[in-house]
Write a structure and sequence with these properties.
Strand content: 15-25%
Number of strands: 11
Order of helices and strands: EEEEHHEHHHEEEHHHHEEHE
Radius of gyration: 20 Å
Largest sheet: 7 strands, mixed
Mean pLDDT: 84
Number of helices: 10
Oligomer: single chain
Low-confidence stretches: 3-43, 126-149
Shape: globular
């Protein structure tokens, strides 16, 4: 797991609501080469979208509208998708990478939905949908000025994480799009405004937007500081089978575990594993019924030398193992490799 990021000295001034203009956010995203169609490189701003881990996930009830109330300790692994953006006329998305074939680049993609929602909420576009961010339609809404930027971006997603796998890949991609486009478009939304927008995209998007360990409650909108988490190694294994979150919730029966009792902090990975042993993933049994391969994954992780805890993340089918250090996790990932399985360790 990655430790919480240090405070950023260039954090933008937080304001209520939305502003648009030039250079409202100081700093520039990390720049790497973006491969073009001819195989060369084009300079582009980039943002990682790290895998989200539910170290435990308790179902605490259900609201009248059908949404489940959750209690979860969330951390992030070093495995990540990467999203790039460049200024452009209109909005476009290209997807490459190992899992590109499992996604479409149409307006239903969470990256484009996040871009459209950000543009609409900031007043830069007249409505929802990727087409709402086109220069022509935005220009109809209000006149141009020296400080006015019509939204547009060429987005490029390097899809390295498996899809529908319980590690928040799509949510992390949406959160990365919000962070990246705020910089690209010169937006400084207030934290509450951006978090509300994120929640409208999905329950996991707010915690992915925060990008640091947190305890997640409500339907995903209640974020409180996590206990002090140690540095430790993590293995992620997916059996190569997608699993829809809605189907897992429908298959779940019985009462949930209720809120967990957590210590204020954990000295090392072994202490964290002992603390988490008293918790559970309340979706794991339902997911196993839908995808029995999860059982084989959990058994393999548990048998790996040095594994301290094995558990499913989110609604599955990805499972994780905790290890004392990154080197041990990396060795275990090599031992766990199977045809069709996706494995990562570090």
């Amino acid at each position: 797991m990655r430790p919480p990021p240090p405070p950023r000295p260039d954090r933008p001034r937080q304001i209520t609501g939305w502003n648009s203009g030039r250079a409202l956010l100081p700093g520039v995203a990390e720049t790497r080469g973006l491969p073009d169609a001819a195989g060369g490189n084009a300079p582009s701003a980039g943002e990682d979208a790290p895998a989200k881990l539910n170290l435990y996930l308790h179902v605490c009830g259900r609201r009248a509208d059908g949404y489940h109330l959750l209690d979860s300790l969330v951390a992030f692994a070093g495995a990540a998708d990467r999203l790039y953006a460049e200024p452009a006329e209109g909005m476009s998305l290209r997807i490459t990478g190992r899992f590109a074939g499992d996604l479409t680049a149409g307006p239903e993609n969470l990256v484009l939905r996040a871009a459209a929602a950000l543009a609409a909420a900031s007043g830069m576009a007249p409505g929802e949908g990727a087409e709402a961010a086109s220069p022509a339609r935005a220009a109809e809404r209000r006149p141009r000025s020296a400080d006015w930027m019509v939204p547009g971006a060429a987005l490029w997603l390097d899809k390295r994480l498996p899809v529908a796998s319980g590690i928040g890949g799509g949510s992390a991609d949406a959160a990365a799009a919000l962070r990246l486009l705020c910089r690209l478009w010169g937006l400084a939304p207030g934290e509450k405004a951006l978090a509300a927008l994120a929640l409208g995209l999905g329950a996991d998007v707010p915690v992915c937007l925060a990008g640091r360990p947190a305890r997640m409650g409500g339907v995903g909108e209640v974020l409180t500081p996590a206990p002090r988490l140690p540095r430790c190694g993590v293995v992620l294994v997916n059996p190569g089978l997608p699993l829809a979150t809605a189907a897992v919730f429908r298959a779940r029966h019985g009462a949930g575990s209720g809120p967990a009792l957590l210590a204020a902090g954990y000295a090392d990975a072994a202490a964290l594993a002992r603390g988490l042993a008293g918790c559970a993933n309340d979706l794991q049994a339902a997911a196993l019924g839908l995808c029995p391969a999860i059982g084989a994954v959990l058994a393999a992780i548990e048998a790996a030398p040095g594994c301290l805890l094995a558990r499913m993340s989110g609604s599955g089918a990805t499972c994780f193992g905790l290890f004392a250090d990154h080197a041990g996790a990396a060795r275990a990932a090599g031992l766990l490799a199977r045809p069709g399985w996706w494995c990562w360790g570090g």
